[in-house]
Each structure stands twice: as C-alpha cells, then as structure tokens.
Design brief:
Layout: H1 2-20, H2 33-43, H3 269-272, E1 367-369, E2 387-389, E3 407-409, E4 427-429, H4 530-542
Parallel strand pairs: 1-2, 2-3, 3-4
C-alpha cells in the first residue's frame, strides 16, 4: 500500500512539473511585432543596433511606428507586415522581402533596398528620398504621393505599379520596367526613358516635355492629353498608342512607327451618365446594379454597402476604395486595380476577379462562393474569417497573404505557391495532396479527414491542429511542429517525421508503424506501455484543451459570415 501511495505521489509531482514548467516549444509564434523584434535581436546575440539582424522573420508582424533606423536588416522578411509610420531611414534592406507590406508614411530616407522584393507593397506617403532601389521588384506596388526625390530606380521592375502624379522629372530611368504601370499626371519632364519598358503603360495627362523616349517600344501606350513638347520619339514603335489631344509641338518623330490603330478608345457611355463617379467620390449604400463601369477611376472612394450586382468594373482603377459590406455578386472585376481596398464583409459570390490586383486588400469576412480569383495578385491580402467555397485560386500570388480563420472548401489551388503561408485556425476542406506547405503556419487548423498525401510540411507549424483521420501517406513532416496535434486515426503510412515535435500529440489508432520516426521530440503520450499511459492520462487531465478534440468542431474565428 505504501508503495502504491509513493508511486501515486511521484506521478502527481510529475504532472505538476509539466504544468508549471515553461513551454520551450521553439515553434510557438508570437504575433506581437515588438516581441518578434526582440527575438530577432537576441538571435543575433546582441542588442547593438549596428549589428547584423539579417534573415529575421517578421512576416505579418505589427511593427507600426517602430524605430529601425540604421539597422542591417538585409534579407529580412516583412511580407504582410504592418510598418505604417515606421522609421527605416539609412537601414540596410538589401534583398529584404516586403510582399504586400503596409509601408504607409514609413520613412525610408537613404535606405539601401537593392534587389529588395516589394511586390504589392503599399507605399502611399512613404519617404523614399535618396533610397537605392536598383534592381528592386516593385510589381503592383502603390506609390501614390510617396516622396521619390533622388530615388534610384534603375533596373527595377515596377510593372503595374501606381506612380500616378509622381514627380520623376530629370530622372535617368535606365532599365526600369514600367509595363502597364499607372503614370497618369506624372511629371517626367527631361527624363531619360531610353531602354525603359513602357508597353501598355498609362501616361495620359503626363508631362513628358523634353523626355527621351527614343528607340523604345511604346505600343498601346496611352499618351492622351500628354505634353510631348520637344520630346524625342525617334525610332520608337507607337503601334496602337493613344495620342488623342497630346501636345506634339516640336516632337521628334523621325522613323517613328505609326499605324491606323492610333485612335481614341470610345468613351464609356454609362460613365458619361454618372459624371459624379470619380476619384474620392462618396456613394455609400447606393445602387449601381448591372452597369457598365469598365475602366472607371474611382480610387479612394466610398462605396460601402452599395449594390454593384452584375456590374462591369473590369480594368477599373480602385486603389484604396471602400467596398465594405458591398454586394458584388456576379460583378466583373477582371484586371481591376484594388490594391489597398477594403472589401471586408462583401459578397463576392459568382464574381470574376481573375487577373485583378488585390495587394494589401482587406477581404476579411467576405462571402465568396464560386468566385474566380485565378491569376490574381494577393500580396499581403487579409482573408480573416472569409468564406471561400468552390473558389478558383489557380495561379494566384499569395505571398504575405493571411488566411487566418478562413473556411476554405473545394478550392482550386493549382499552381499556387503555398510555402510560408498562414492558415492558422482555418477550416480546410480542400484536397492538398502533393502541395508544398513548407514553412507555413497551420496552427489550430481544422483538417479532419483532409487529403494530405505526399504533401510537404517541412518546418510547418501544425501545433493544436485537428488532423484526426487525415490522409497523410508519404507526407514530409521533417522538423514539423505537431505539439498538441490530434493525429487520431490519421494515416501516416511511410510519412517522414524526422526531427518532428510530437510532444503531447494524440496518435491513438494512427497508422504510424511504417513512418520514419527519427530524432523526434516526444513524451509519455507517444509510448504505449502501461506506465507512460498513466502519465499521459494524468497530463491530459490536468492540462486544459488537450487532444483529442471534439469531432463536432466548429469554425473558430472572430467573424460572422453575413451571407450564409
């Protein structure tokens, strides 16, 4: 009897130790930006602001108004992060990643951004004076009202970027890719655009006085109402260009290629009937159903709660527009510019957004049934609690996007790069077999019975995930975090669990006998002998929210779907 009480006391003490000892799980994600910065500094073994803080991971972090002046952050990843008002002046950001990052009003004076990836970055009102962006990628970036004085843009890729109204006068834009970029009203007087790529670029109302555009492919460029006085267009190809009302006084056009397609595009009659529709216009809760508004400019306008059912907004310029709670069922938004737009709570059922730019857009709580997101740009977009059923996301670019709490059922994810993605708390009913989800965050995800055969989960965070009865044959789970994961009845035949963390994981009835189990981190719950079973039972009893999780699991997020 004394031996029994002694054994019971030992087991009880062990259980207490489990509770009070800190969780050293290295995969725990802290979303607080300041904490992440502290960890980054500690990682580099110094709090010295001049030390190298390279390769730090700040994806989706909140770093608003943080001071990062004169820090070496080369190679750091800020994808989807919020750096509004932050100070990055004189910092070394060479090859840093800013997919869909919010850099509004950020100070990047004198920053070194050579070869940085800033696709879809929101840079409105940002200071880039004296910054070096040589070789940087700025595809789909929003640079409206940003300060570009003496900014080096040589050899950068700014295709489909927004430079509307920018002062780029007296600049050498050697090797800059400005294909399909928005340069309306821009000041490019005396600038050298030789070797710059300008195919399908919008230069309407731009000041190109004395600009050198010689020996260039200017096919289908919009030069309507532009000032081309004394500009050099010699040996350039203007096939299909729009020169309506352009000022061609003393313009040099020797050997310039012109064709019969140089005409004005017919005016949109529907837009003429609504002259109040323009940039900064305000029409909350208005009715615009079944209208033809293709190509319209309504950026930073308020259309919250409005009904746009069946409306044609293809190619429309809608940067920063407020479409919160709007009805866009069946709307045509192909190739629309919606960078920084607020679409939270909107109904997108049956809408076509193929090819649209949604970089940094807020799609939290949207209801999207049979919506086409094919070939969309979703850098840094937010899908918190969104309902995505039978949607097409094929070929979409989702770097830095956030799918926390999303309900995703039967989605087409073909040719989507899911590496480094965030599906925390998500409920996924989509076939992910063979998908590469390495380095992703699937913490607390609902994947009951999911098809995950041959998937790559290397370095992926699956802690607290519900993988009960999941099909995971031949899956790669090397270095994966499976802390507190429910793997009950999961099929892990021939799966590779090398170096995986299986602490407090639930594996009852899991097919794991042929899996590669090497150098794993585990505890009593992974062993089947009587003693460890008792320890595991006590542990699960005293620790709240331990697996197995209920099969009646409901969608865990903070959003209420408005269109059930």
């Amino acid at each position: 009897m004394n031996i029994f009480f002694l054994l019971y006391a030992i087991l009880l003490a062990f259980a207490v130790l489990i509770i009070i000892l800190p969780n050293t799980n290295s995969f725990t994600v802290d979303n607080d930006g300041q904490t992440m910065m502290k960890k980054c500094l500690e990682k580099n073994s110094s709090l010295d602001q001049n030390m190298n803080k390279s390769d730090c991971d700040f994806k989706r972090a909140n770093l608003r108004n943080v001071n990062l002046e004169k820090i070496n952050l080369s190679g750091a990843d800020f994808s989807g992060a919020d750096l509004t008002g932050s100070n990055l002046s004189y910092s070394n950001l060479t090859e840093a990643v800013f997919y869909g990052t919010n850099l509004r009003e950020a100070n990047l004076y004198g920053a070194e951004l050579k070869n940085a990836k800033m696709d879809g970055a929101y840079l409105r009102d940002a200071v880039l004076e004296n910054a070096n962006l040589n070789g940087a990628s700025l595809k789909h970036a929003y640079l409206y009202k940003s300060i570009l004085v003496k900014t080096n843009l040589e050899n950068s890729d700014a295709s489909r970027a927004n430079f509307c109204g920018q002062d780029l006068s007296h600049r050498i834009l050697y090797g800059v890719n400005l294909d399909q970029a928005d340069l309306r009203y821009a000041n490019l007087a005396q600038s050298n655009l030789v070797s710059a790529s300008l195919r399908h670029t919008d230069l309407s109302y731009a000041n190109l006085f004395g600009a050198d555009l010689s020996n260039n492919d200017l096919s289908f460029v919009n030069l309507s109402n532009s000032n081309l006085v004394e500009a050099n267009l010699e040996n350039s190809d203007l096939s299909g260009a729009d020169l309506t009302k352009a000022n061609l006084k003393n313009t040099k056009m020797t050997n310039t290629k012109l064709d019969e397609n140089i005409t004005i595009n017919p005016k949109n009659k529907m837009i003429e009937n609504h002259l109040n529709l323009h940039k900064y216009s305000s029409f909350p809760n208005a009715n615009f159903t079944n209208m033809d508004l293709h190509g319209i400019e309504i950026s930073e306008s308020d259309f919250s709660g409005s009904d746009l059912t069946g409306t044609d907004l293809s190619g429309a310029l809608m940067w920063g527009i407020n479409l919160r709670d709007a009805n866009l069922r069946g709307a045509n938004l192909t190739l629309a510019y919606l960078s920084g737009a607020d679409l939270s709570g909107a109904d997108l059922s049956g809408a076509d957004l193929s090819g649209a730019d949604l970089s940094g857009a807020d799609l939290s709580g949207v209801y999207a049934d049979k919506t086409d997101f094919g070939f969309t740009t979703l850098y840094g977009s937010k899908f918190y609690g969104a309902y995505l059923s039978d949607v097409n996301l094929s070929n979409a670019r989702i770097e830095g996007a956030i799918f926390t709490g999303v309900f995703m059922y039967n989605a087409n994810l073909s040719k989507v790069d899911l590496r480094n993605s965030s599906f925390e708390n998500a409920q996924i009913g989509t076939d992910l077999s063979g998908m590469d989800l390495s380095n992703s965050n699937l913490r607390n995800a609902y994947l009951h019975g999911a098809s995950l055969n041959d998937a790559n989960f290397t370095n992926t965070n699956l802690s607290w995930a519900y993988l009960n009865s999941a099909h995971m044959k031949n899956s790669n789970l090397r270095n994966a975090n499976l802390y507190m994961t429910d793997l009950g009845a999961a099929d892990l035949t021939n799966a590779d669990l090398t170096n995986a963390d299986l602490t407090q994981a639930y594996t009852k009835n899991a097919k794991i006998s042929t899996a590669i189990i090497k150098d794993i981190k585990s505890d009593s719950c992974f062993h089947i002998d009587g003693f460890n079973k008792i320890i595991c039972k006590i542990t699960r009893t005293v620790i709240a929210h331990s697996p197995p999780y209920e099969t009646t699991f409901v969608h865990r997020d903070n959003y209420v779907v408005k269109y059930p």
